[in-house]
Design goal:
Length: 322
């Protein structure tokens, strides 16, 4: 399964094919800007059942140097089999389309970038035959764009700068500049770059900073990331409201219980007064009478019994007219 950073590192060139020309000056070459670009099928499988796919394949046409193919590969780590695959891609594409073929490898760490840009030959040392040496874009040569005006001048390049520096200390400053620049961009321009940048950051700590930065102004930020932010905020607010409601209910219940306990205490005290009066008057108190008095919780009824306890000739008559 391909990862979000893998997709972001090559799909951004599909989004803006002219990006390769603008990136090339950082790679030590001068590639003219295309006047036309066509996305080609990435399936390089032949009649045999071995499936081979390049990440992104573009046909770029220039005004002065004609057409050429650009294969873009996203490489997340060193892999000993990759140079052979890259050799196959370039040879196959050259054979199929009869066009010069360039290979760009995009990386996010220095070690992978250093490995990827080393020339690899398929033959023995004295017979190199076919040598593959891709152009490599990574944190070692992509610009660190921390000025919003510079980011505004080339938003796609600024997004690629953030992606290739995702694990670098400078990424926070790049993201702040990019988010500031994007606020002035139309939604159809800003939205895909917000997504590419988020994909490229993946689960790195900078992803949280990016979400917080773009969430400041949701007018251009209407995507699955916005829904993630809303869901997280909604969950936090629900917990906060739940705690508030729980506190309110606890206060209400406390008041109710306090009132119930108060009434029970008054009832117990009044029942004791009734029994005391009856005992002081020397009236016999049966278990039924005692039980009925002590189990009564009606304050008004107990008050009525208390008044009768002063004058009734028998304890049982306390309940009459009740």
């Amino acid at each position: 399964m391909v990862s979000p950073p893998h997709e972001a590192m090559h799909r951004i060139f599909q989004h803006d094919p002219g990006l390769f020309s603008r990136v090339s000056r950082f790679l030590g070459v001068d590639i003219p800007a295309p006047v036309k670009a066509t996305a080609l099928p990435t399936d390089l499988t032949e009649a045999n059942p071995v499936e081979r796919r390049v990440d992104t394949l573009l046909r770029l046409e220039t005004a002065d140097q004609g057409s050429y193919l650009l294969a873009v590969e996203a490489q997340g780590k060193k892999h000993p089999d990759k140079p052979a695959s890259w050799a196959y891609y370039t040879a196959y594409l050259w054979t199929k389309y009869r066009l010069p073929t360039a290979l760009l490898v995009v990386c996010q760490d220095h070690a992978t970038a250093t490995w990827a840009q080393q020339p690899v030959s398929c033959g023995p040392p004295q017979l190199p035959t076919l040598t593959v040496q891709p152009l490599v874009a990574g944190p070692h040569n992509m610009p660190v764009i921390t000025d919003p005006e510079e980011a505004r001048a080339d938003l796609v390049l600024a997004s690629l700068a953030a992606i290739t520096h995702a694990a670098e200390p400078d990424v926070d400053a790049i993201l702040k500049a990019l988010s500031t620049a994007l606020r002035d961009a139309p939604e159809d321009v800003a939205k895909p770059l917000v997504e590419f940048t988020a994909q490229g950051l993946a689960k790195r700590p900078a992803k949280n900073l990016w979400r917080n930065l773009v969430a400041v102004d949701l007018s251009f930020y209407k995507s699955y990331l916005a829904e993630e932010v809303r869901d997280e905020v909604r969950a936090a607010v629900r917990d906060e409201v739940r705690n508030e409601v729980r506190d309110e209910v606890r206060d209400e219940v406390r008041d109710e219980v306090r009132g119930e306990v108060r009434d029970e205490a008054r009832a117990e005290s009044r029942a004791e007064d009734i029994l005391l009066i009856l005992e002081q008057r020397g009236l016999g108190i049966s278990e039924d009478v005692r039980s009925r008095i002590t189990h009564c919780t009606d304050p008004e009824l107990l008050r009525h019994w208390l008044a009768r306890a002063v004058t009734v000739p028998k304890a049982e008559e306390v309940f009459e007219d009740a």
